[in-house]
Amino acid sequence: MEARLNAFASPVMGKVFKHLIAANKPIADSTVPYATQELVRLRASQINGCGACVDMHFKEAVFAGEEATRLNLVAVWREATVFTDAERAALELAEQGSRLADGGGVTDEVWENAAKHYDEEQLAALVCLIALINAFNRANVMIRQPGGSYQAGQHVHAAAQLSD
Questions:
Q1: Cα-based distances in Å from 141 to 18, 42, 68, 110, 160
Q2: Is the pLDDT of residue 154 over 90?
Q3: Distance separating alpha carbons of residues 53 and 141, to the nearest angstrom
Q4: Single pTM value for the model
Q5: What is the pLDDT at residue 103?
């Protein structure tokens, strides 16, 4: 499978992706644990059927020291015993925030559960994280960006190329 467009060679997509990548910095700098951030990115990417992002976030999480067992169980987190209550709340928020058409948005119950585990700034970071990964997922799915060839750290180099 080959992508319909090269996102990093396209002047328009390159500029947009540069801004989306830059928008991740405040999230990375937040107090939301990195493991939680990658679990959320992985789950949203699974829901959206984005092979490129599933590949990327699985490999980035492994590179950062995350256990393969936990990553393999993200898709079935409700039936798994390896996630904390806070991670479960973030995963549920990610699911409802990614499946807006399925249920009309994030329920008060899911929001209140997340608020038990995350302060207001962490919730803001999670909302932005979920919005950004959904944007990347949708773009990658539309251009049929394939998964499988991503190398951990590769996005750092691509972001650097965009800023040249």
A1: 18, 15, 25, 27, 23
A2: no
A3: 10
A4: 0.91
A5: 77
